[in-house]
Amino acid sequence: LVSASYATCAGLLCVIPPLPTDHAPALILHGGLDPIVPSWTSLVYERALIDDGIPNERILRPLEGHVWFEGSSEAVLAWFQDHP
Question: Any bridge partners for residue 27, and if so which?
Answer without folding.
Answer: 57
